[in-house]
Every structure is written in structure tokens, then in C-alpha cells.
Amino acid sequence: MNTSIDASAPVSAPVVSDAAVLRRLYFARFAFAAVWAALLFASSGELGPLGATLLVIYPLFDAACAVVDVRSAAAIRGSVRGLYVNIALSVLTAAALVAATTSGVPAVLRVWGAWAVTAGLVQLLVGVLRRAAGGQWPMIVSGAISVLAGGSFIAQAAKDDPSLSALAGYAFLGGVFFLISALRLGRADRTNRFPGSAGRTL
Fold first, then answer.
1. Confidence (pLDDT) at 163
2. Spatial CB neighbours of 36, under 8 Å, sequence gap ≥ 6
């Protein structure tokens, strides 16, 4: 009996679901946000070398995550366009923050606030478009909160002695929403693979 293996035969590769890719990305975003918030808090919210570096790194990391996200969102109609907008916003924000960090805390808060508003709207829209994928309600709520927080940052910039400390709380809360969404996506992925094992997760 011929037991040889045809090397030209296609080898099936393991299939990774969209939910699994998003879940890993969301876990990574939570971990980054938690560490970033702790480091910014340790800098006492001052615009020193550490604080300035952290401020620029955050939107760059956000842009990198969006690039990874684009690959997993190709099958979800309409959400890729929003992710491209998010990439552009994050890169522009990083560049604007480089200039703002030389002008003082008020300038940083205005730039960060504008980014939080626009990026929050994009996140909310992408979450709505991805509802069928499951686990997106935390992202929708997070986007709405980001819009409100962005407005508050812009308002804080006009006050006496503004601080960057609030940005640490904003980043950590956003990370928590990513964690919640990752957990819900895990449940949705199990439901899709084993129908009837759990209820539908939004």
C-alpha cells in the first residue's frame, strides 16, 4: 500500500475567527492602557520628559492597533473605513501632541480633548457596525463616554492650573471597556462554535 504524502496537496491551516482576533487585540489594549495610566499617574500629571513621551506614545499605539484591527474587520461591511479614519486621527494627534507638549498643559488638553471627541465618535460608529460580531456594546458605550470626556478636557484647559492626571483615568477606563468587550467576545465566539451553549452576546 502506498503511504506516501503528496507534498503538492494543500494543507489546511487553522482558522481563527474574527472574534478571536479582536479578543486578543482588546486584551492587549487593556494591558497597555493599564500600564500607561500607571506611568502617567506616577509622573504626577506633570509635563516632564516622561509625561511628554507617554502622551505621544498613546495615539501611536492606538494607530498601530487600528492597523491590526483592519485585517480582522475586512469581512465586516463598513467598519474598515472607520478604522482607517481612526488611524489618520491617531497619527495626526501624535504629531499635534509633539507640538503641544512644548506649549504647556492647556495645549495638550485641547489636542487630547479634540482627539477624544473625534475618535470616540469613530469608535461608537464602528461598534454599531460590528454589532453582529458580538461583544460590541462596551465599545459603543466607551465611544460615547470618550466624546463627553473629550469635551471636559477642552473645558479643563481654560481653568487655572490644569493637570494631566485626568488623562490617566480616561485611559484606564477605556482599557476596562476593552477588557469587558474581550470577555464578551469570548462568550460570543464559543456560542458561534457551539450553538445553543449560550445566549446571543452583543
1. 87
2. 54, 57, 58, 61, 168, 171
pLDDT for 167 beyond 90? yes
Looking at residue 132, what DSSP letter applies?
G
Q: Which long-range contacts (CB under 8 A, 24 or more apart) does 122-125 make?
A: 122/82, 122/85, 122/86, 122/89, 123/86, 125/82
Q: Would you kindly state where each structural domain of the chain is located, as residue ranges?
A: 19-189
Say whether pTM exceeds 0.70: yes
Length of the chain (residues)? 202
| Confidence check: pLDDT of 17 > 50 | yes
Cβ-contact 131, 118 below 8 angstroms:
no
CA 182 to each of CA 15, 48, 60, 137: distance values in angstroms, whole numbers, following the listed order = 19, 34, 21, 11
